[in-house]
């Protein structure tokens, strides 16, 4: 009897140990699943910014973004040809309208001069036709007076009339020829302008892609020109801040590339819509003070104030 009770007690103990192992195993599986879960995206943090005397001020926002400029363009060839002359190279500063380079335009200029000579010739013919028209008109007037006096025939009167009318049509024909010739001149003048590479705005030549004597095709890159001011930073914010950002909000711009410099800034533009795919909207911040050592392309931190 005692042996039976001992056997029953031993079985109960084994059952308890088995249940305990099952609980531990379940807990281990739960922790492994939690460890492999994808973390949620970290929202943009709004933190208090210090006031002028070091005391806490209005809520502020700190976001990073690249420094950009509004005017930045790659100039390309507007026609095929040989690059005859390069007048400026990187990193030269240029003014709007400065001639940077020129393609070979000798044939275009020769065609343009021929078109101008043709226009001058047609213009001279037109003046001749107009002078003849005045003579024929005067002859027709005299024939009318003679007809009233009975001193000329109806045939002579009609002949004078037809000659005067015919000359008017000749004047119209020559006038149209002159207009066509002048349009050819304008077309060649445009082609001559396409041979010139002009700076579209004040800025600096960041890069030159071609060399003198090189044959270029229409659309091929020639120069990269960028403005130096005003400096802007385009940042992206979560939609929960939409409505809290306003044009003119003050802020500051700093950069780890230029330690020790802090620059005044303000919000220049706030996007009127939220991107539904990302749940964000864009804000453009403009540097209002001196740019110091900041340059386009650097990464900057934007410290915005008065976020309510």
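-> sequence recovered:
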């Amino acid at each position: 009897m005692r042996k039976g009770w001992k056997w029953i007690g031993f079985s109960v103990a084994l059952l308890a140990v088995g249940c305990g192992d099952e609980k531990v195993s379940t807990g281990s599986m739960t922790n492994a699943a939690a460890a492999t879960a994808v973390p949620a995206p970290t929202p943009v943090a709004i933190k208090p910014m210090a006031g002028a005397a070091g005391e806490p001020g209005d809520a502020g926002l700190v976001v990073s973004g690249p420094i950009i400029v509004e005017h930045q363009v790659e100039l390309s060839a507007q026609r095929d040809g040989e690059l005859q002359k390069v007048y400026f190279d990187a990193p030269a500063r240029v003014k709007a309208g400065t001639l940077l380079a020129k393609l070979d335009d000798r044939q275009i200029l020769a065609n343009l001069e021929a078109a101008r000579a043709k226009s001058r010739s047609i213009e001279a013919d037109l003046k001749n036709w107009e002078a003849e028209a005045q003579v024929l008109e005067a002859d027709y007037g005299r024939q009318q007076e003679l007809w009233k006096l009975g001193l000329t025939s109806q045939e002579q009167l009609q002949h004078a009339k037809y000659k005067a009318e015919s000359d008017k049509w000749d004047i119209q024909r020559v006038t149209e020829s002159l207009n066509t010739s002048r349009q050819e001149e304008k077309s060649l003048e445009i082609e001559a302008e396409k041979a010139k590479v002009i700076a579209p705005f004040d800025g600096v030549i960041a890069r030159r892609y071609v060399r003198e004597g090189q044959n270029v095709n229409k659309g091929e890159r020639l120069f990269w020109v960028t403005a130096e001011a005003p400096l802007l930073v385009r940042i992206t914010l979560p939609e929960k801040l939409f409505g809290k950002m306003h044009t003119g909000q003050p802020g500051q711009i700093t950069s780890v590339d230029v330690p020790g410099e802090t620059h005044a800034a303000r919000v220049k533009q706030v996007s009127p819509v939220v991107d539904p795919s990302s749940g964000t909207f864009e804000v453009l911040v403009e540097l209002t003070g001196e740019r110091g050592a900041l340059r386009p392309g650097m990464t900057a931190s934007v410290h915005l104030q008065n976020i309510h």
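DSSP finds three helices and 15 strands in the chain.
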